[in-house]
Design goal:
Blueprint: H1 6-14, E1 20-21, E2 26-32, E3 35-41, E4 46-49, E5 58-63, E6 73-80, H2 87-91, E7 94-97, E8 100-103, E9 116-120, E10 127-134, E11 144-152, E12 157-167, H3 176-184, E13 187-188
Antiparallel strand pairs: 1-4, 2-3, 3-13, 4-5, 5-6, 6-12, 7-8, 9-10, 10-11, 11-12
Length: 193
Amino acid sequence: MKRLSFFAIILFGVTTGARADLSENAVREVEFNGCRFKISNLHGGELRVSRYSPPKMAFYRFNSNPYTPHTTETSIEFYCDSSKGGKAFSDMGLGRHNGTWYLIPNKSDPGNLLNQKLYVLDNNGLEGAAATDDQTTGDEERRVQGIGFCLTNQKQILCGTSQAVGYVAYPQQSSLPKVLELLKSIKFLEPTE
């Protein structure tokens, strides 16, 4: 994924303010950089909006199953890409033609499509998609699967990434289904900024 980076982890550590320890099933409104949306806290996670890092971003973190030996703590970085229009989707490796979503091959690693999977996120008046990307190097037991996504209501474009939703070697313990469920809970609201 083009946007997966160590930078997201660093930013998460320095975010302050606008923090909410959400109770299960609570709905939280988030607004930053021209995007405003509601998100359901389906998994008892923690939501933060960066106050000082330009551009502002939101972060959602949860541990999908702390009692399994091969689970990861999942941290999702959200950023508003409304000004980019359709380029936000192509930057994430996602395309749409005649209503059908598809993956755009990475020019620097065209064979990587074998390690990616597309998920359509059209729901609740949203259009969007997500793509997972499996690590292919390093210790096979420690390789992780990441995800990148973009959602739109034709006015706002919200994109994001998570570096690790699970270990490639242990797909049955992945938090991917919970991440997809969380993303499908998002509903855009009219921005006030």
